[in-house]
């Protein structure tokens, strides 16, 4: 999927959150959004994943504006996008069932009923449920293949986030949208998810990622986009954005300087 945001703006109750943002994500490319809290990163991701409609401008998927389509066709496009949020949100069931959830909701009801009947038959004949190969493949990517039958409630926070990532991967989406997926993780779990992102890129998935971790952005990005107060300040390779930024605001942010409104600070 080629995703393009073209002159996108978004506001709520007269408050402008994003202003005239243009950004594209190609298949097999990792684009990372950086910027301070409140810059509009999460809103941008919600627009890209078709959860919100832009106030102005257009979001295009392979050249098509999904919001110009009937609801069912737009839903079909949305289902080609896998989303991982900052906090893992798992169902009170097994790891495998959580990973398979994303695929189940994409199937027609007739297929869901047939799968349910097959699982019941498997449990009755073999005494244990079967696990789909694609579910196991997704768990393999996050290092949890052998944990497929564990209760999700028994997982650590890092393991739960890895299961969330596997759930987004299992339907083999064209685009992954990741909202600070490693912000609360230890270095080991962070490294595992970064490796999974690299593998997803290798399978030609596009990845749009928001992060506060500048080192992470340098490690895994093809391009970095700096967002400030709802405006896209600049976009470029990690080397250019971090080493030779073209805008002084980017340079200050990369250096770790505070970005603030002096009048607001004095007030």
Note down, in words, how this protein is organized.
With 267 residues, the protein is α/β, with parallel strands linked by helices. It has a domain at 3-94 and 174-266: 3-Layer(aba) Sandwich (Rossmann fold). The protein has 11 helices and 9 strands. The protein has helices at residues 41-48, 71-78, 95-104, 109-126, 133-141, 157-169, 187-202, 214-220, 238-243, 248-255, 262-266; strands spanning 3-12, 15-25, 30-34, 56-61, 81-84, 175-179, 206-210, 223-228, 231-236. It has a 6-stranded mixed sheet, sandwiched between helices. Strands 2-1-4 form a 3-stranded antiparallel sheet, covered by helices on one side. It is globular. The model has no long low-confidence stretch (mean pLDDT 88).
Give a short summary of the structure.
By secondary structure, the chain is of the alpha/beta class.
Task: Report the principal-axis shape.
Answer: globular
Main pleated sheet: 6 strands, mixed
Radius of gyration equals 20 Å
Total count of helical runs of at least 4 residues = 11
Just name the CATH architecture of the domain at 3-94 and 174-266. Answer: 3-Layer(aba) Sandwich
Name the helix and strand elements from N-terminus to C-terminus, one letter apiece.
EEEHEHEHHHHEHEHEEHHH
> Overall mean pLDDT score?
88
Name of the CATH homologous superfamily of the domain at 3-94 and 174-266: P-loop containing nucleotide triphosphate hydrolases
User: Roughly how much helix do the residues carry, as a percent range?
Assistant: 40-55%
Q: Quote the beta fraction.
A: 15-25%
Q: Strands of the biggest beta sheet: in what spatial order?
A: 5-6-7-3-8-9
Organism: Natrinema longum
GO biological process, one term: phosphate ion transmembrane transport
Protein name: Phosphate ABC transporter ATP-binding protein
GO molecular function: ATP binding; ATP hydrolysis activity; phosphate transmembrane transporter activity
């Amino acid at each position: 999927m080629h995703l393009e945001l073209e002159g996108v703006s978004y506001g709520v109750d007269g408050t402008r959150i994003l202003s005239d943002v243009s950004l594209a994500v190609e298949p097999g490319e990792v684009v990372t959004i950086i910027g301070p809290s409140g810059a509009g990163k999460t809103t941008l991701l919600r627009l890209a994943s078709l959860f919100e409609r832009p106030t102005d401008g257009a979001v295009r998927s392979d050249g098509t504006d999904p919001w110009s389509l009937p609801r069912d066709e737009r839903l079909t496009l949305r289902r080609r996008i896998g989303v991982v949020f900052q906090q893992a949100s798992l169902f009170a069931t097994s790891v495998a069932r959580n990973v398979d959830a994303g695929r189940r909701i994409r199937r027609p009801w007739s297929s869901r009923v047939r799968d349910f009947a097959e699982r019941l038959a498997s449990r009755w004949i073999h005494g244990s449920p079967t696990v789909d190969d694609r579910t196991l493949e997704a768990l393999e990517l996050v290092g949890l293949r052998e944990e497929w039958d564990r209760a999700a409630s028994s997982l650590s926070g890092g393991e739960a986030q890895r299961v969330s990532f596997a759930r987004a991967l299992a339907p083999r989406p064209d685009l992954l949208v990741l909202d600070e997926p490693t912000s609360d993780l230890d270095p080991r779990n962070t490294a595992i998810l970064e490796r999974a992102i690299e593998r997803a890129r290798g399978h030609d998935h596009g990845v749009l990622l928001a992060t506060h971790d500048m080192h992470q952005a340098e490690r895994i990005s093809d391009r970095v986009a700096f967002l400030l107060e709802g405006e896209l300040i600049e976009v470029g390779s990690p080397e250019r954005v971090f080493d030779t930024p073209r805008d002084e605001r980017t340079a200050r942010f990369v250096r770790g300087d505070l970005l603030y409104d002096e009048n607001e600070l004095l007030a």
